[in-house]
Amino acid sequence: MSSPLLAVSGLTKRYRRGGKTIAAVDDVSFDIEPGETLALAGPSGSGKSTIARLLLRLIEPDAGRVEFEGGDFLSLNGAALRAQRARLQMVFQDPLAAFNPRASVARVLDDPLRIHGIASRKERPRRIAALLERVGLSADLAGRAIHEISGGQRQRVAIARAIATKPSLIVLDEAVSALDVSVRRQILQLLLDLQREERIAYLFISHDLGVISAIAHRVVILDAGRTAESGDARAVIDAPQSAIGKALVAAAPKLNRTSKDSDAADRQ
Amino acid sequence: MTALLSIRDLTVTYRRDGSEVAALKHVSLDVAAGERLAIIGESGSGKSTLALAIAGLLPASARIGGRIDWFLRSPSSWGAKAPPSVLPDISPSRGEIALSSPPSPISKVAGRDPTAKLPISPLEGEMSGRTEGGLMERDAQKSAAKPTHIPLGGRDIGFVFQDPSASLDPVMAVGEQIAEVAHAHLGLTWSQSYARAKTLLERVRLPDPDAALRAFPHQLSGGQKQRVAIAAAIAAGPKLLIADEATSALDTIVQAEIVALIRQLVAEDGMTLLFVSHDIALAAELAERIAVCRHGELVELGATAQIIASPRHAYTRALLDAHLGLDAEPLLERAGASR
Fold first, then answer.
1. Which residues fall within 8 angstroms of residue B251, CB to CB, at 6 or more apart?
2. What sequence ranges are listed for the domain ABC transporter (chain A) (predicted)?
3. ipTM of the predicted structure?
């Protein structure tokens, strides 16, 4: 039995709002194994994105422990934190908001290679070309500005940047939610290929159970900051036990491609 | 089936970086009165351009060819009262969707609007539809006189945008934003308009309508704001409700609630619904007919059941295959998964 890559226990984050204290994340615990995809699902305000921000140390928790690669992640500071951040990367929903839109693709990919001392200046253009090819983009794209390329290409660049530092875990916060369905499927396939080949684990944050059922091994369903239920993704989606799990499954748009929809036909 | 509007050979071209980009190419489509029609497609398919063209909300820089004919019965009060409005989706300058005769009073109102010719913000730019107004009017005058009147945005067409934070005025109380529509288009007094606003807030099921009347948009959740935007859109009793990706920014549960609400309001008020979405499964749950757009062309149009069960166009099939439903074939090879 290997130890988990990420072990989160009792994670809690409270905010004061209008004299009242609200727990955005309330005693949440989960593990992620190397090479595994754990999905965090739940409606708006359930605490999904707060957990992502806590894991990235963008905000600090009020209580709880985060162990990453066997060490206490929450006590890291300065150079030690920077070094571990190379191993824990992030892809956001909107890469146009995450990057300087006027920066070139090469610049966006050069930053992590330089900051983390991964490649020398001479070596970096070759590494950038290799990263672009790794995510299915042409190396010719390096000179283009972020705002000039399509949304799908931008999200591939975001993934290339995330894998540039050879992470063991990538937090993906609604990373495919804004993409067209056909592009979304390609990006999910890319994530799966990278996971298989590099054994990267994903914390996949989404409100879309369809996407989760397609790529996650396990799921944690959150409601108002608390864990409502968790388990094997297929099992939870097929037979949700919690009220919020049932509501999420009921709300997912379903395509019935075989039956006749008399309601639709009767107007013609 | 009575047509509400008829689109023929509609072509919309934008100028971008000095070159012309056709956002819509020769689209012809009839919208039946009282139907729920979905327009679906991916980015760049032209679906939103089509919705904006129908609502007369295309930017002034857009070049428009073809025609849109409306079959609206003339209400006695039309054109009588159209003071400037603060709500982007009910601005009188949008009256220029005006595609059938007689054209005059609306363009006069728009001409008086001091902001109409000064696109100081992208939104304002979008609101003024000068170019196509003129162009289409010429077309319209050629056509035989019909018992129709010019559709006016806000009164005849309600428009719900994707982002209610952008379409609601952040510094105006919600009640006033809804009341204003009734005041402007129905000629009600302000106290009647506020009473109507409260009824509308009840109809869109805001938890505490009295408190909501006085609330500002930032005090409401995303779903509540979209309910307010819907209340404002239907406040003047429009014939046509256009929802352009109106649920796309909401989480799945709120999305399902808003779709149910739209369905109910459309049925109760006998409105025609144009539901613009990238999500074919969501469209199929709501619409009776689906129009599929791709690269500015209408590639397939049919009854929902036919589109879903036996699509004729390869692109429609591709969209259906790309949908990731709860029952979709997982991309993940579970057996070989590393755990």
1. A43, A44, A207
2. 6-249
3. 0.83
